[in-house]
């Protein structure tokens, strides 16, 4: 019976430790956005919330929505390159606004 109680206690400690590690804030490890000046509120809010990972998630969702009205819309429609700088094409911001972005 003592061995059972000891294994049960050890199991509970390990489960508790696992839950504690899982609950840590993953944003602390998130890569920050490269830009410090933002042309869109969408990017600024996403970067503040969760860095590059959140910005990518938000923009992928936006592009998917924009494709419903313009099937040619893609990341490369407005960007000359992706990571690490995500430089815009000369008319990238205009294309974004024409597609309904603010």
Brief descriptors of the model:
4 helices; elongated; mainly alpha; 102 residues
Structure summarized in a few sentences:
By secondary structure, the chain is mainly alpha-helical.
Describe this structure as you would to a colleague.
This protein is an all-alpha fold and 102 residues long. The chain has a domain at 40-102. Helix content is 57%, strand content 0%. The protein has four helices and no strands. The chain has helices at residues 2-22, 41-66, 75-78, 92-98. The longest helix has 26 residues, at 41-66. The chain starts with a helix and ends with a helix.
List the helices and strands and how they pair.
Layout: H1 2-22, H2 41-66, H3 75-78, H4 92-98
